[in-house]
User: Which sequence fits this backbone?
């Protein structure tokens, strides 16, 4: 029986603030899973800590709510052990790009076939609005005592240069577009990254829903002027087609330039997609030829309660 | 029969082949039927600093090193300066005669505290600070000197074999050292050739070069060296013997018991185990397709344990291997594994702390840290193995404990074990039982991962199991795994998890909790690798008619209080022996058994205990001449 959208929802009470951008993201994830018709018990949502960390409890698949900054480590371990699983990791921008930045970079280098979605709102919401890594230098959101003293991380740029092979940005109030991006990300054969702009209505009074909608620009143009636009509506081509070094370099450079666009025009959509970099599982097959057919989670390790591993050749080499 | 008890020491700059020299020597002795116990000491350095290997050889079972060295073979000056006073009267020093005029000032790797001590000694004897001086001291002490010019050996050999390359090939010095030594003790030469062939089996040309050099050196010694009273001519071989490196016990144990994923971050002295696992990652499985161990080098230790947990959630037996500093980084995750009841194994090859401490040296420093690791209360197991052979079987056991009790297990090993090379009985993987506890193959309707059950252990699903969906969280949770802050549920959940500690004490058999080597008026308590030196020391005392008891405690948390109490009922004095500053087991013992430690024998120089110094300290205690706290210090 085909699963419906409702089948991917739990009945756990959602305690996010009214108007929180996170609702759009969790809806988009559920819609994407339903559209792809993924098997619930072959899918795992891993989440970090913070408001976004609760996401895994709202989705009716396996859900693993991990630790601050560490979500990618758990997710990668599970995916390597059982490559059959559909793995989606989610977390805040403080989680992934602050405390977890080392894991973010290392994950890119591995290119494991899974998806990482960052809920990007510029603040640490659950601890009452401190500056997070994507908040711009000098900005002062409402609960900051003084303006932000740190330069911001560029999530798209960091992902592309770390080795993520699918890099995109969505907006939490454009749920259908975000859903489409999630489907593409999950279907990508390699590590995909989605930076989702997500207004925090309680603590980020700069990048608000109205700000993204361009309300402050209305006086001049006398009409609604959204800051957000879609790359697919332009002639921007994110895809590496021929996988020559020159082409890859050109696509990386282009995505970096594009990632710097901010202010009155904010691009969403796919920045970079490269299918020519081997996913981690392929690299493992290079060392263990039957890794995919007989991965760690599938291996039988005993017979009648006794070890079935034959270590005699190694012991023979130690024999005197 | 007078027993053979012979210690050979080889030293040289790091990177000069000391280790492979010692491997050749150890293998030859083992092949010729002897029991071997070798240990390696080295600096935190890649090339140049002093490293040495002491190989003890005997015709009976041995478990430790001694203070005394019977024969030293040295091709550099530093080894002579550092070890000349360890050789026994009647023992020997083979040395490079070209070094005789070298003074301490030209050996830049001699650190000043050592140099000051040596200079004081030489000054008091009115001797200059040279190799010649220290050799004179040794000679006056009855040590036989065997000078030989290593350079001229290579020159002659180069001429004879018409191989000009050989002339300057100083990296042959280690093979020359070994071969001269074996010639001196009259070891049958065939065994040497076989050992070299074995060790260089993948590089036949290098094997040949080494064989030529070794034959020449061996013959040189038999022809030129005289009057050495110690001989190793071979004895009857014990069947089923292997020569194994310390870290191979847990590695082979992991392969055998079905650990199929191990992430790790490089750290001394733990990495060797992971590298060995990876080198042997393709596994043969009886009556089934090949298996494999996936070994992943991670970006840090936090990632290593995170991946271990993620993998364990899929039902895969998973472990990580680290040392103290790495384990320190893992502790937040340890609590996550605890509250989510995830079976993982952390193998901790301890070294000397605190902080970076003595990064390549030994220490049993992490006992209390392991017992208390992580914030908040959660059940875990801390288990320690005493030697390589034990560690193989214990590895199988700790994975069973993790699965049965659904807790993280910290398996304590240490540097002493990791860098020892010993003969022992061939490991028997048929003795490795696999018990996955309540890991389910099929989920029941309305499955709940943290269901309350009579024994406090819930059926465990795994990621990907049909209809086995569950949630995990580091927050307190309800039976399904969703967050709760309900005070009543909180009590039930905490009680459920913590009841595991009683269950562990109830279910683990006594002989896996602690091992009694006898009880006496004086009884030792100890843990981990201090076992070996203690066993050899109390055997020697027993030969003299002095009986001392020894309880090796293996399950350190939860502490097997009742069982340990039952083993020391008749002991009047408790002696705690361990390799750390504060007597960590002593504290744990006192806290649980409610009994004071009467004497402590502690060592924290970073060098492993020898049985000689343990023997000396025990003897002082028996003679009522000991301090309550005896601190050991032997070893360069």
Assistant:
């Amino acid at each position: 029986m085909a699963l419906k959208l409702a089948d991917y929802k739990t009945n756990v009470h959602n305690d996010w603030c009214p108007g929180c951008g996170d609702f759009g993201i969790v809806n988009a994830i559920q819609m994407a899973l339903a559209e792809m018709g993924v098997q619930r018990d072959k899918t795992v949502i891993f989440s970090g800590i913070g408001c976004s960390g609760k996401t895994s409890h709202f989705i009716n698949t396996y859900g693993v709510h991990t630790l601050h900054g560490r979500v990618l480590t758990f997710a990668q371990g599970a995916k390597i052990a059982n490559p059959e699983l559909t793995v989606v990791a989610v977390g805040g921008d403080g989680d992934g790009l602050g405390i977890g930045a080392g894991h973010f970079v290392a994950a890119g280098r591995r290119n494991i076939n899974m998806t990482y979605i960052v809920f990007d709102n510029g603040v640490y919401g659950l601890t009452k609005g401190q500056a997070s890594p994507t908040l711009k230098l000098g900005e002062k959101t409402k609960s900051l005592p003084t303006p932000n003293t740190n330069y911001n991380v560029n999530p798209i740029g960091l992902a592309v240069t770390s080795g993520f092979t699918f890099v995109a940005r969505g907006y939490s109030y454009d749920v259908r577009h975000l859903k489409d991006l999630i489907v593409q990300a999950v279907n990508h054969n390699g590590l995909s990254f989605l930076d989702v702009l997500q207004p925090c209505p309680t603590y980020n009074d700069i990048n608000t829903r109205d700000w993204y909608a361009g309300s402050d620009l209305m006086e001049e143009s006398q009409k609604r002027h959204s800051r957000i636009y879609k790359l697919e509506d332009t002639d921007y081509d994110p895809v590496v087609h021929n996988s020559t070094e020159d082409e890859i370099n050109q696509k990386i450079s282009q995505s970096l330039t594009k990632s710097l666009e901010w202010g009155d025009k904010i691009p969403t959509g796919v920045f970079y997609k490269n299918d020519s970099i081997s996913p981690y599982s392929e690299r493992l097959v290079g060392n263990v030829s039957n890794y995919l057919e007989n991965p760690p989670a599938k291996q039988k390790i005993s017979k009648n309660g006794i070890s079935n591993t034959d270590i005699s050749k190694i012991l023979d080499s130690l024999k005197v | 029969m007078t027993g053979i008890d012979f210690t050979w020491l080889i030293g040289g700059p790091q990177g000069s082949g000391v280790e492979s020299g010692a491997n050749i020597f150890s293998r030859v002795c083992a092949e010729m039927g002897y029991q071997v116990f070798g240990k390696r000491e080295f600096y935190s350095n890649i090339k140049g600093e002093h490293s040495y290997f002491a190989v003890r050889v005997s015709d009976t079972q041995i478990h430790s090193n001694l203070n005394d060295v019977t024969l030293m073979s040295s091709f550099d000056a530093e080894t002579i300066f550092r070890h000349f006073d360890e050789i026994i009267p009647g023992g020997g020093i083979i040395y490079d005669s070209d070094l005789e005029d070298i003074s301490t000032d030209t050996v830049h790797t001699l650190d000043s505290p050592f140099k000051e001590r040596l200079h004081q000694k030489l000054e008091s004897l009115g001797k200059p600070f040279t190799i010649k001086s220290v050799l004179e001291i040794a000679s006056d002490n009855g040590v036989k000197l065997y000078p030989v010019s290593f350079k001229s050996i290579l020159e002659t050999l180069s001429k004879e074999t018409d191989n000009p390359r050989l002339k300057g090939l100083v990296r042959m010095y280690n093979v020359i050292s070994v071969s001269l030594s074996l010639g001196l003790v009259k070891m049958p030469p065939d065994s040497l050739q076989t050992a070299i062939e074995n060790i260089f089996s993948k590089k036949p040309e290098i094997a040949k070069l080494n064989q030529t050099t070794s034959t020449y050196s061996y013959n040189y010694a038999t022809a030129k060296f005289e009057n050495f009273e110690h001989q190793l001519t071979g004895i009857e071989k014990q069947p089923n013997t292997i020569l194994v490196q310390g870290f191979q016990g847990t590695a082979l144990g992991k392969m055998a018991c079905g650990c199929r994923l191990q992430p790790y971050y490089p750290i001394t002295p733990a990495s060797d185990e992971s590298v060995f696992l990876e080198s042997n990652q393709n596994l043969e499985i009886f009556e089934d397709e090949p298996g494999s161990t996936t070994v992943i080098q991670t970006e840090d230790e936090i990632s290593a344990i995170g991946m271990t947990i993620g993998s364990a959630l899929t039902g895969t037996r998973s472990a990580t291997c680290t040392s103290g500093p790495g384990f320190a980084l893992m502790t937040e995750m340890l609590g996550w594994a605890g509250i989510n009841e995830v079976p993982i194994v952390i193998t901790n090859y301890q070294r000397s702390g605190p902080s970076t401490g003595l990064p390549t040296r030994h220490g049993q420093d992490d006992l209390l840290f392991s017992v208390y690791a992580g914030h908040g209360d959660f059940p875990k197991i801390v288990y320690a193995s005493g030697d390589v052979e034990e560690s193989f079987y214990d590895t199988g056991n700790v994975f069973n404990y993790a699965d049965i009790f659904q807790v993280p297990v910290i398996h304590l090993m240490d540097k002493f074990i990791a860098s020892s090379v010993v003969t022992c009985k061939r490991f028997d993987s048929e003795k490795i039982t696999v018990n996955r506890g309540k890991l389910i193959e099929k989920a029941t309707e309305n499955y709940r991962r943290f269901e309350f059950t009579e024994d406090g252990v819930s059926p465990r699903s795994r990621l990907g199991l049909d209809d086995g969906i569950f949630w995990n969280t580091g927050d307190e949770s309800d039976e399904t795994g969703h967050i709760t802050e309900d005070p009543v549920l909180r009590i039930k959940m905490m009680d459920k998890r913590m009841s595991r500690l009683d269950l562990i004490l109830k279910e683990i058999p006594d002989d896996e909790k602690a091992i009694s080597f006898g009880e006496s008026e004086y009884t030792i308590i100890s843990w981990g690798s201090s076992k070996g030196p203690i066993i050899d020391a109390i055997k020697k005392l027993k030969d003299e008619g002095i009986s001392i008891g020894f309880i090796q405690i293996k399950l350190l948390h939860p502490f097997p209080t009742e069982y340990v109490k039952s083993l020391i009922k008749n002991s009047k004095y408790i002696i705690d022996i361990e390799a750390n500053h504060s007597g960590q087991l002593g504290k744990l013992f006192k806290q649980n058994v409610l009994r004071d430690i009467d004497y402590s024998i502690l060592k924290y120089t970073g060098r492993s205990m020898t049985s000689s110094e343990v023997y000396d300290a025990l003897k002082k205690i028996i003679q009522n001449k000991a301090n309550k706290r005896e601190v050991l210090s032997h070893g360069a």
